[in-house]
Amino acid sequence: MELSKIKGLGEKTIQYLNQLNIYDSDDLIRNYPYRFNVYAKRSINDDRYYDNFVSDGVVESPAVINFFRGKMNRITFRCNIQNKIIRVVIFNRAFLKNKIVPGSIVTLTGKYDPKKEELVASNIKFGALKNGVEIEPVYHLNKKITGKQMNNYVNSALSYVEVLNNIPESLREKYNFMNEYDALKIINNPVDEASLKTALKTLKYEELFTYMKNVRLLKLKNEVHNPCYKKNVDLDKVNDFINCLPFKLTLDQKKVTEKMLSEISNDTLMNRLLQGDVGTGKTIVAFILAYALKTGNYQTSFMAPTEVLARQHYKNAQSLFKDTDFEIGLLTGKMTVKEKKEVYEKIKNGQIDMLIGTHALISEKVLWKNLGLVITDEQHRFGVNQRTILKNKSNYPEVLMMSATPIPRTYALTIYGDTDVSSIKTKPEGRLPVITKVVKEEDMKDVLEGVYSALKKGNQAYVIAPMIEESEDTDYTNVFDLKRKFEIAFKNYNVGIMHGKMNAEEKDSVMNSYRLGKIDILISTTVIEVGVDVKNASVIVIFDADRFGLSTLHQLRGRVGRNSIQSYCYLISNKDKERLKIMEKENDGYKISEADFKLRGQGDLFGNRQSGALSFKLSDVKKDYDLLVKVRDDVNELFDK
Ligand code: ADP
Ligand code: MG
User: Fold this and answer.
1) Residue 379: is it exposed, middle or buried by C-beta count within 10 angstroms (0-12/13-18/19+)?
2) What confidence score (pLDDT) does residue 59 get?
3) Residue 359 gets which letter from DSSP?
4) What burial letters (b/e) apply to 517-542, b meaning 16+ CB within 10 Å?
5) Cα–Cα distance between 522 and 516 in angstroms, integer?
């Protein structure tokens, strides 16, 4: 239901809700509180000042109302709290006046001042305090909406909803869950901790259940044999293309390519995750497959998680396929409406064979003539739903997901629902392991010498900082500051800068200059973390390295060592030495992630939440892994019946 149809939501409010990614009533009721404040009943006879005083009491006198400064108002009344008569003040709640009558029982929350014997209440509820606690849901908010308002909006949206039945009755009974609707009511209006717990458990289960059910449905679809799923491709043409590549495929690349070519030619649909550490050369395998589909007149969608990466793939593909009739298009959110329209048109009439882009590819406006293959690069960066949507756009596309982030087999089984997994284990021949050094800030001179010697040989450098600009809360290094310093230290070289606040064209132009060697040192935030491929770069310096997870550091380090030259990675930090030292010894992404896991009890296997990586609203893939497995078994049992 549209937000505008909900009582009490005006145009402005809807705008503010949109800013919080809430676009309809479903978004609103699923806007779960992320935390709960629990206030216990306080004794008024403590004679203490309380910021969060909570108690119930009996109204002693009728409410008196005062208006001031035009719109403001104040209600006051006397109240008997634990046999002490105090004054209660409530601001801007004039509409409550007639409900506050002598003899009625109220529960009050607010600031209590024992000297004045006065309670300034921020909240009043009618009825006694149950269970001795008052629980307040806390929501993600922006400055325009208060928690109280959000709570009202959610409750208002809930009043339009009827029963929800996403969890089958049998499972609801098995685990003693509530109805999902009741659970939603409770988390937004909690009265005691026990029922709140059950409500949260119910909703978490519902979330994972819905997800696993979809995974299972997808899998069913993939098990179906259907002659329509056969893609006829011209293998001779594909082999000609492979033979004309500027390099020879590695053994692993060849193996997975052959495997996938045979899979797309049979009568089931491919659903494959291609894993391979950074720099093992996954992209070319994907391109070969896309080209194969082209020879059978099918189109390919190729989705990358960032604009920078999408543009890089686009450029690479253009140069790789320049002597063929393989047409490549680019679609990103930052393109103009006119540019996008042109692309939509070419997709519809089949002029574009492979469309590379960001999640703009998911737009409903992209209508394919004959989509045959869906590729996602850096799969772990995408939310789970996006993948499904893209896949559902055409009836029978083959699916290839790629990821450098190691996902343990058990996770892969659950999350990807028995997706087939292939790996590329070895890097192209002649690659030397990147030499990594953990360096203290005071030994910066060694680092600068390392950078200088690379530049002198005509190579390039990356310098990474965690922050964009100076910030009051941290003293972490920022890119602007570093740029000034490196410009002074490297007077005869060009220093460029890149960060997430730059727009797409700016980033693109910096990346181009860097690729062309016009920039020698690129100072950047982690926007270059995934996928960026500039062969001539041979040094990467990472400031405040302790701020990053080891898998992120490994990804960043993967930006160098993409050629036969010896590359170096400097990790600058005065902290967390033991963890960072792992990077000096290990060059293998899987082992690094394992070590990180052991050391911290958790690795950053799935990246951070902000990146949308496999993120659920209530559940956490890591913390709720056992529940996820349970849900998977429940779903399987249900389907088997
Ligand atoms: P990733 O697996 O991290 O995505 P890329 O696909 O970006 O790695 O490949 C890394 C680099 O290696 C690219 O510059 C690519 O052109 C190059 N490359 C890929 N395969 C080979 C090969 N068989 N021989 C030499 N270079 C290769
Ligand atoms: Mg890649």
Assistant:
1) buried
2) 97
3) G
4) eebbbbbbbbbbbbbbbbebbbbbbb
5) 12
According to DSSP, residue 129 is labeled P
Question: Which of the ligands is closest to the CA of residue 558?
Answer: 1
Q: Check whether 639 has a pLDDT greater than 90.
A: no
Helices 504-515 and 307-320, interaxial angle, to 10°? 50
607-634 mean pLDDT: 70
* pTM reported for the whole predicted model: 0.68
Work out which ligand 1 atom sits closest to the CA atom of 283: 6
Closest ligand 1 atom to residue 558 Cα is: 3
Residue to substitute in 241, 245, 247, 565 for testing ligand 1 pocket (most ligand atoms within 8 angstroms of CB): 247
- Give the separation between CA 324 and CA 318, rounded to whole angstroms: 10
Indicate whether 530 pLDDT > 70. Answer: yes
Nearest CA to ligand 1 atom 16: 281
Give pLDDT, residue 418. Answer: 62
Selected residue with higher pLDDT from 261 and 616 = 261
* Banded model confidence at residue 608, pLDDT cuts 50, 70, 90: very low
Residue 192's region, left for phi above 0, alpha for psi from -120 to 50, else beta, is: beta
Q: Please name the residue whose Cα sits nearest to atom 4 of ligand 1.
A: 282
Report which protein residue has its CA nearest ligand 1's atom 12: 281
Torsion-angle region of residue 378: left (phi > 0), alpha (psi -120 to 50) or beta?
Answer: left
Q: Select the highest-mean-pLDDT range: 56-65, 221-230, 273-282.
A: 56-65
Q: Which tokens belong to 395?
A: 């009836």
- As for ligand 1, residues whose beta carbon falls within 6 Å of it are 247-250, 253, 276, 278-284, 404, 428, 531, 533, 535, 562
Residue 228 has pLDDT above 60, yes or no: yes
